[in-house]
Design a protein that fits this description.
The chain is α/β, with parallel strands linked by helices. It has 29 helices and 27 strands. Strand 26 and strand 27 form a beta hairpin. Bound molecules: adenosine-5'-diphosphate and magnesium ion.
Length: 869
């Protein structure tokens, strides 16, 4: 057995091996230890290996799914080794000692789940593969529970951002690929480099989709083909040959989307929270706060929309018109939402059917969802003033009439999930099946009347006819009455004697029972044949069904956004052609919702950025509302370009191509770099990438280091954003000294969050006003926070001394008056010495050098380098 175990374990690789033994899946060795600690189940041992007891634990097969769910959630992958022959077959093959043959039938991994119980209905579950061919990096991503398959080619610098958008639960990398600083995938799986070869990938994809050429799906680069091919190869590996559902790949065009990198997503918490105890949760994120979708597919689409706002004005206006139409007509919206709410998650039902794990219940879900879609379409088609996007989408709901009618005739109202017991095909669909059922029913009636007859005949009132899996139908009497039936002329044959009862058979009973059983077996077979045909019919239309599901989800999202907008007084944003951001009465939806819970009111604030006034420097006391103000404006941009209303009284914006958000010294050590390093790396990315169409919020950048460094860096970052990037920017800072930048930078203006000291207490007004903050209120905040009065008093004394000193020396920013202009520094920047080095290097012809000369040349280069330093 150990030999078999090790060969399977070898195949399973890093996956935990579930080794089927009877009614249990057993795990051994380290697998057992890992599983036992994750699942909190008993670790036992069995036999010895190399003189050590073998660690073992097991989970019952019937409950395996819930254990699997926990293991997957904890980051494991599992290989399931089933018995692939019966013990009897094993004996026939290899004698009485033969071991039952086992093989891995499936790998259960986070990215390849289709089971309803293992998936979260309202979130997408993606598997992604990343490939690099030459300079081209591509990511393929699939949600195999719905078949959505997309591929995107990205510049190397944008890989992390793209992965952050997709948030795959499993990411495939080639064995030979370099380590990537990837923060956004939950699990990284290394696969053989052959999976990533673009030539074999091409063939694999053509076979998978059953096409002669991929050209019909679009023109793909070699990197894209390699990534898609690797993904399909992995599906093949984990399913060991079973079918998987993928729609033809959609090319995700990064160009039509707002660029949002990983750090920005993290700090804005668009679809999940990133910081604190509940990190990773939907609740508390923008999505969690505004999601009013009534279908799971709608919830998934809303998450995608928020994660990937548009940059195409026409497309945004289309979505806005639809939301607008639904916002204006509450009655209509209510009807639509009620209709959608009743629809099952057909996209995932279809996914299970195609994966071969579907059942009658899934077909019924298709019937109900597609039937509902038809009604919805008819209802919508009667409206005169359909928003254009809806009019355009409507035909996508059509065309399932024949399938729906067939399913409606074929299936009972609520069929079972599992087909094994039959009983799901409706009466009247198949006359032969009805006849079989009739026969079985008659047989059961006959058996019931036999029971009465036998009681009469034997005079044993407690005689019963029973059924079990081993004996089938049989007569059972209490032991004390058994003798009468034992008599040879009684017509009964003895089958079994148990403690209190004795069991018999009779020829009449046997005959009736055979009729019932046979009819039952035939009926189940007939139902199974129907199930197969119906499943095939549904699968044959999978592309159309998936398209209809997308339309339903789009309507749900628009109605949900409209509903939320109406109940929260949101407005439709105007799109402008020039880079501006003008918001009156803007609010932060998540903070506002949190405050509302405790009965507090959110103070709305305005912003108005334009080409002439594009950089706002926001100062003011800690807890004054600076971070909230910055983020609310970033969220307004995201919501508007996702095609929704925004939390404001009025809003007008020029489209944003890239959105950046940076928070100084956030407490995120997860990436294994110092927080200040992270802060600077992220800031560097902004300075390198932000364009005049971008929107940037910088929150306390420079906080993560000493005062002088921090101020100096913050100072020069503001200058660079103003002079070089020329983007719209909100910059919050506690460095009061920065306000002096207003004297030299003409598109920069000063603002502050207001606060007042009143009867010794600090009152934070959360209200934005023009000009710099008059002071920093640090001590008042400390008092507010409960720092003991003695300590605050002492700090006051220290502060008085410091301020007296500042007056004399001119303070932290003394001497900055004669700082040369930022532009002048930039112009002087090209390093002359480095060019000398380049020149010398360029002049060397390695082939023409003697060894000695080569060494000399090397010394020369080293000298040049030293000069430069
Ligand atoms: P800062 O960045 O200036 O330290 P925050 O933006 O973090 O301040 O805000 C601190 C707290 O103040 C928030 O958690 C919130 O409860 C409250 N707050 C912020 N802005 C507002 C507002 N506009 N209206 C009401 N409360 C606000
Ligand atoms: Mg703050």
């Amino acid at each position: 057995m150990m030999a078999q175990y090790w060969s399977l374990k070898d195949k399973a690789g890093e996956c935990l091996l579930f080794y089927r033994m009877g009614d249990f899946f057993e795990l051994f060795f380290d697998d057992a230890k890992a599983a036992a600690s994750t699942l909190d189940i008993a670790l036992t041992s069995r036999g010895e290996h190399d003189g050590q007891p073998v660690a073992m634990c097991g989970v019952p097969v019937h409950a395996a799914e819930s254990y699997l769910a926990r293991l997957i959630r904890a980051g494991h992958r599992v290989a399931i080794a089933e018995q692939i022959e019966t013990p009897a077959e094993a004996k026939a093959r290899g004698g009485s000692k033969a071991l039952v043959a086992r093989d891995i039938v499936r790998f259960v991994t986070a990215g390849t789940l289709t089971e309803e119980s293992l998936l979260e209905g309202r979130s997408a579950n993606r598997l992604a593969a990343l490939a690099q061919v030459g300079d081209e990096v591509a990511i393929a991503a699939a949600d195999i529970s719905t078949g959505r398959f997309e591929v995107v080619a990205v510049p190397a610098a944008a890989v992390d951002a793209e992965l952050a958008r997709l948030a795959p639960s499993e990411l495939l990398l080639s064995e030979s690929a370099e380590e990537l600083p990837i923060s956004s995938a939950r699990q990284i799986v290394r696969r053989p480099s052959s999976d990533f070869s673009s030539t074999s990938a091409q063939k694999r994809l053509e076979t998978f989709f059953g096409v002669q050429t991929l050209d019909g799906f679009g023109q793909f680069g070699r990197g894209e083909i390699a990534a898609m091919g690797a993904l399909v190869a992995y599906l093949d590996h984990v399913g060991t040959g079973g079918p998987t559902f993928l729609q033809p790949p959609l090319r995700h065009l990064a160009s039509g989307r707002m660029a949002i990198d990983a750090a920005t997503r993290e700090s804005l918490e668009l679809v999940r929270t990133m910081i604190g105890a509940g990190a990773g949760a939907r609740e508390g994120s923008l999505l969690g706060t505004i999601d009013r979708t009534v279908t799971a597919a709608g919830a998934r689409l809303l998450a995608d929309d928020l994660a990937s706002p548009l940059t195409d004005k026409g497309a945004i206006l289309d979505r806005l018109d639809l939301v607008d139409g639904l916002a204006r007509d509450a009655l209509w919206r209510g009807e639509l939402r009620a209709a959608l709410r009743a629809l099952p998650d057909a996209a995932r039902a279809l996914g299970r059917l195609v994966a071969g794990r579907g059942g009658p219940r899934d077909l019924a879900q298709l019937r109900d969802a597609l039937g509902g879609a038809r009604l919805l379409r008819e209802h919508l088609a009667r409206r005169a003033d359909l928003p254009p996007l809806l009019a355009h989408l409507l035909p996508g709901l059509d065309g399932h009439g024949a399938l729906v009618d067939e399913l409606a005739r074929a299936l009972i109202e609520t069929p079972p999930v599992d087909a094994a017991q039959g009983g799901y095909v409706a009466e009247g669909y198949d006359h032969a099946l009805d006849a079989l059922r009739e026969t079985a029913r008659d047989g059961r009636k006959a058996i019931a009347s036999l029971e009465a007859q036998y009681r009469d005949r034997t005079g044993i009132a407690s005689l019963k006819i029973r059924h079990n899996g081993v004996l089938g139908y049989h007569v059972e009497v209490p032991a004390k009455h058994a003798d009468a039936l034992m008599a040879p002329e009684s017509g009964f044959t003895h089958r079994q004697t148990l403690a209190g009862v004795v069991r018999f058979n009779s020829s009449d009973l046997h005959e009736a029972a055979s009729r019932v059983t046979q009819a039952g077996v035939h009926a189940i077979a007939a139902e199974a044949a129907h199930l197969e045909a119906l499943t095939d019919a549904a699968i044959g239309r999978r592309a159309e069904i998936a398209a209809s599901c997308d339309v339903l989800a789009r309507i749900d999202v628009a109605a949900a956004l409209a509903d939320h907008a109406m109940s929260h007084n949101w407005c439709r944003p105007d799109l402008a052609d020039e880079p501006c951001l003008e918001v009156t009465g803007g609010r932060h939806p998540v903070v506002e919702a949190a405050l509302a819970k405790s009965g507090e009111r959110f103070v709305p604030n305005d912003v108005s950025l334009s080409e002439a006034d594009r950089l706002w420097l926001v100062t003011g006391p800690n807890m004054g509302g600076k971070s909230t103000f910055l983020r609310q404006n970033a969220l307004i941009v995201v919501l508007a370009q996702a095609g929704g209303f925004v939390p404001a009284a009025t809003a007008k914006l020029g489209l944003v191509d890239r959105l950046f958000s940076r928070v100084g010294a956030s407490d995120n050590l997860a990436r294994g770099r110092s927080t200040f390093m992270v802060e600077m790396v992220e800031t560097a990315a902004i300075l390198a990438q932000a364009t005049p169409q971008s929107f940037v919020i910088l929150d306390e950048v420079g906080r993560g280091t000493s005062t002088y460094d921090g101020l100096a860096l913050a100072w020069s970052v503001v200058e660079a954003v103003h002079e070089v990037n020329k983007c719209r920017c909100l910059f919050a800072t506690h460095y009061h000294e920065l306000t002096r930048l207003a004297e030299t930078l003409d598109a920069l203006s000063l603002h502050h969050v207001r606060a007042r000291e009143w009867q010794g207490d600090l009152v934070l007004l959360h209200e934005l006003a023009e000009g710099p903050a008059d002071r920093s209120y640090g001590l008042a905040v400390a008092r507010l926070a409960g720092v003991p009065a003695g300590v605050v008093k002492r700090a006051e004394a220290v502060l008085a001394k410091l301020e007296a000193g500042r007056e004399k020396t001119g303070g932290l920013a003394a001497g900055l008056d004669d700082l040369p202009l930022f532009a002048a520094t930039l112009a002087a920047a090209p390093e002359a010495a480095k060019d000398a080095l380049r020149e010398a290097l360029g002049a060397i012809d390695p082939d023409a050098l003697a060894p000695r000369e080569a060494l000399d040349a090397l010394y020369t280069l080293k000298h040049l380098l030293a000069d430069e330093a």
